[in-house]
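Aim 2 progress update. The chain analyzed this quarter is reproduced below.
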Amino acid sequence: MSTPTSSLFELTDRVALITGGAGLLGREYAEALASAGAHVVLADLHGEAAKAVAEQLTQKGFPRALGIQADVAEKESVQRMIQQVMECFGRLDILINNAALTVKGGTSDAEEYFAPVEEYPLSLWEKALAVNLTGTFLCCQEAAKPMLAQGRGVIVNISSTYGVVGPDKRIYSRSRNPHDPSKKLNTPPSYSATKGAILSLTRYLAAYWAGKGIRVNALTPGGVYDGHDEEFVKSYSSRAILGRMADRNEYQGAILFLSSDASSYMTGANLIVDGGWTAW
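Predicted structure tokens:
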């Protein structure tokens, strides 16, 4: 007898941990999984913000949510994070590695963050490696322990279109850094490098945990509108086949698919949802 299609997306009583949970997309991922019945744990460097998002989910009538402070670049912090999840819920079924170093969440020095390659600070490069790549590895490493004990688990690593293709400098040619109008915007080299590495790590871990019940996939989102200036939106939109930037809620379906049994025959893959950006 076949399984009803709708039940493939159910996450009732499953526990999902989302790093960078207080961020723009972290909140959307959390609501998508909570709406499917999951208990959501939002971990963020900004613990109070994570707790506020968890409280909002609970107030909306979703299953119990938890907000905690965590620094994914620190092994001891990651270990405490997993311990808190296990103490509160007794299991961990889903890990979404969403935390990343951005100008909004992790560094306040916009001039350094958008510096050209020739002047890019080594300290910022190393910090991006620590958060984006080492953080993803540490979270996978620690989350896998309860997942292996359970005999099942799902890990979704968040990459980026700039982990798949190089940035199109033309869309940044006239866009200015809002923190310093004399400076042009660009995509940091560390961001592209780490997001590309995450795809390789995803494939490695999927193969490594083959036969152990842990599926590991990546989600590659395109650009999301977040108050960008009109000139940048126009430039970006002209580069996407669908002719626009994504709305913040347009990745909810993809994250639910990858986290649920709807993707049960999928591991080591990269789901690209970018409005056609990488199709030409």
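The two ends are 42 Å apart (CA to CA). The mean pLDDT is 92. These observations will guide the mutagenesis experiments scheduled for the next reporting period.
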